[in-house]
Amino acid sequence: MKTFGDTRIDLQLDEQRRSETTMHNEKVKKNREILKRLIHCVIFLGKQELPFRGHDESRESANRGNYLELLTFLAKYDPDLHYHLSTSKVFIGTSSQIQNDLISAVAEVMGEIIKEEISKAPFVALMLDETSDVSNAAQLSFVLRFVTDSGVKERFVKFEDVTGKKRAEDVAALALGFLEEHGCMDKLVAQCYDGAAVMASGLNGVQAKV
Question: DUF4371 domain: which residues (predicted)?
């Protein structure tokens, strides 16, 4: 083997590779810990039903929105998070796209947990209610109520935009698709709607079609 002074070159290269691998693994570990903090912030804001973003998220803003302000607050007491937010150039985790990605990821995991709970429930009740948001878009909320070994569970699952799809046939199709997606078509024992005829009518409403 070739040597450089008194040290074999192949041993030097092996040591360098080990050092680089160790540094890479440490960086990955730290990034995962930072990601955990970001996910916990998303879960906290979602649990408290708080909006994520503010009107002005620039560094000069007095209020950058709940997500960024929460991270800034935590960073005061978390040196690793503070270092990450202060020095990271590639992945910071504060952009609107990252926030949306984290929300979607958390929602997907929660959806799978709900499906697993439903798979063990003998009976399911479906609750639908339509409301309009601040932009006047009609949104239909989907809620499932069922019994597990630990008691009665009531899970809000999602909102569905039904602007322009308010006919009983359209809403019923959404409801049936939702029930099929969650594997509870044969478990449905109750339906709950508001008093609107298009929803609750036993003749031509969503109730009759579902």
Answer: 32-205
Q: What SS3 state is found at 128? A: strand
148: in domain? yes
pLDDT, residue 91, reads 84
Q: Give the residues across from 130 on adjacent strands.
A: 140
* 197 and 145 together in one domain: yes
d(CA 51, CA 68): 11
Which residue in the block uniquely carries the two structure tokens 């569970």? 153
The helix (H) or strand (E) run that includes residue 188 is strand 188-192
Instruction: Tally the domains of the chain.
Output: 2
115 falls within a domain? no
pTM for the structure as a whole: 0.74
Which residues sit opposite 132 in a β-bridge?
138
Residue 88, domain extent: 3-104
Do 41 and 127 lie in one domain? The reply is no
* CA 13/CA 2 separation, integer angstroms: 12
Q: Are residues 91 and 124 in the same domain?
A: no
Interval 138-165: pLDDT, tens = 888 899 999 888 889 999 998 888 887 7
Residues in the chain: 210
Which residue is listed with tokens 């809620």?
143
Please report whether residue 113 resides in a domain. Answer: no
Q: What is the mean pLDDT of the chain?
A: 84
Alpha helices in 50-153 (DSSP H): 66-75, 79-87, 96-119
